[in-house]
Amino acid sequence: MSARILDGKATAAAIKQELAERVAKLKAAGHTTGLGTILVGNDPGSAWYVGGKHKDCAEVGIESIRVDLPEETTQDELLAKVRELNENPDCTGYIVQLPLPKHIDTDVILEAMDPAKDADGLHPMNLGRLVANVNRPMASPLPCTPLGCVELLARHDIDLNGKHVLVLGRGVTIGRPVGLLLTRRDVNATVTLAHTGTTNLPELLAQADVVIAAAGVPHIIKADAIKEGAIVLDVGVSRVDGKVTGDVDPAAAEVASWISPNPGGVGPMTRAMLLNNVVEAAERNAK
Ligand SMILES: Nc1nc(=O)c2c([nH]1)NC[C@@H]1CN(c3ccc(C(=O)N[C@@H](CCC(=O)O)C(=O)O)cc3)C=[N+]21
After folding, report:
1. Would residue 127 be called left, alpha or beta, if left means φ above 0 and alpha means ψ between -120 and 50 degrees?
2. In which pathway does it act (predicted)?
3. Where are the alpha helices (DSSP H) in the chain?
4. Which of 15, 237, 262, 276 to mutate to test the pocket of ligand 1 (most atoms within 8 A of CB)?
5. Of 48, 127, 192, 252, which has the highest C-beta tally within 10 A?
6. What is the DSSP letter of 3?
7. Domains in the chain and their CATH numbers?
């Protein structure tokens, strides 16, 4: 048996069409929607991601504001740019591309952002609202990759009620927050968070109904490690010989019932959810 594909590319395209309609509606009512990006340094991977976000914006009618700064930018200079975007009325939401150079304290930068303009959903205020469960629909932005995972499953009519989800990885962009979304009453999954300190990973993998692999270790999830019929989301992004390589060995598709390809799975969904956060921010402003 071969797993069915959780097609992130096609799902993201459908979401973008819906967003384009909402952006057009806002425009007709006199509201512009604008996404800002701040990129520090010359990492080609980061530059490629930021370029993709501006392309996405153009596709759905969102204006974009691009701020590219040199590697040697100081923390104070970056803070000044953050405050500029906080004040700029043409900027509905923005992101600071991560990772930042080592001489900059990422937490200080994220805290300086206006939480209402936090398109990534990574401001401590918004992560705190997620913990406190005050994220009623549209109350505040949610982190893009976790949201992308949940939306990708929902749009393939996969019900997680009562399912056991194993999350691999404890990073702030996915591993930590995704369980908070999955355990809300409307999703109702049971979640285990595994990480490098986990001593019984094989046991946990063997019983998981759903695996969300976000460790960033190429092909750490092998076909023989997962349960027959498991649903597998491959979130890890590594580069091996210049090629995007996920956390899941492609052979796992012979055992899983559903699998998200990588590339073409959660990556495009993350981008679509970023746009979604900006459009929601614009809709909140318009109210
Ligand atoms: N402030 C901030 N917000 C982010 O959301 C953020 C970030 N920093 N830093 C880096 C990570 C990584 N990330 C990806 C987004 C889309 C794809 C994506 O669309 N990938 C395509 C193509 C992959 C390729 O060919 O390179 C795919 O999976 O099909 C991948 C990775 C967002 N990140």
Report:
1. alpha
2. One-carbon metabolism; tetrahydrofolate interconversion
3. 8-28, 44-60, 75-87, 106-112, 124-132, 144-154, 175-182, 201-207, 266-286
4. 237
5. 252
6. P
7. 30-119 (3.40.50.10860), 144-267 (3.40.50.720)
Residue among 120, 227, 234, 247 flagged as catalytic: 120
List pLDDT tens digits, range 4-56.
Answer: 999 999 999 999 999 999 999 999 999 999 999 999 999 999 999 999 999 99
Distance 268 CA to ligand 1 centre (A): 8
Catalytic residue among 7, 16, 53, 118: 53
C-alpha distances in Å from residue 191, one per residue of 117, 163, 164, 181: 30, 8, 6, 10
- Is-catalytic flag, 97? yes
Q: Which atom of ligand 1 is nearest to the CA of 144?
A: 5
Instruction: Check residue 114 and report its DSSP letter.
Output: -
Ligand 1 probe mutation, 173, 239, 276, most atoms within 8 A of CB: 173
| Lookup: tokens for 130 | 């997620």
> Helices 175-182 and 124-132 meet at what angle, rounded to 10?
30
For range 190-196, the mean pLDDT: 98
Query: Which atom number of ligand 1 is nearest to the Cα of residue 120?
Result: 3
| CB distance 49 to ligand 1 below 6 Å | yes
> Are 100 and 82 a contacting pair, CB within 8 Å?
no
Q: What is the pLDDT of residues 139-169, one digit of tens each?
A: 899 999 999 999 999 999 999 999 999 999 9
- Residue 138 clears pLDDT 90, i.e. is over it: no
Mean pLDDT, rounded, for 199-206: 98
